[in-house]
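Could you help me review a protein record that somebody else here produced? Here is the record exactly as it was handed to me:
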Amino acid sequence: MGTVDDRQVIEVAPGYTATIQRRERWWIGWMDEVGGVNSQGATREELIDNLGSALHEALEMK
């Protein structure tokens, strides 16, 4: 298995946090408060943008 960086918890939107980590060449992450919202990106910034979009879509569906 490749390099795995330590997990980080970040705020994606007010009141919503995500756990993110680097896995080999990808960044992966998931929302802590909203099950099923997860994403990946080639960069940390891309992952954060993707998570924000996924969160927005999930909240619209509620």
User: Anything to note?
Assistant: The chain has one domain: 8-61. DSSP finds one helix and four strands in the chain. The longest strand covers residues 16-23. The two ends are 38 Å apart (CA to CA).
